[in-house]
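As a warm-up, study this chain.
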Amino acid sequence: MLITLKSNMDLRPNPNAAPPPRPVPSPPLHQSDADEEDESVKQLQECSSLYLSLQDCLVNTNRNWKSCQMEVQALKACHERRKNDKKK
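Now compare it with the structure written out below.
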């Protein structure tokens, strides 16, 4: 069996072709998303959106905690504020 290829095949992209669709980024998580999460997230109350942002960051950086320090610190500060408010 002999297979022949055309030597004049044009492998250049077609300039009239539509570009491939771009992936749609998922929207950031917000406070309302915590309502759909498990009970442990709901217990965070006003810090839940920060917790979900941290989870997003960890997923997007392949669980690289060093890359998510801004989110870690924001969640820590929120937790400290809640702890101090309960003492008052």
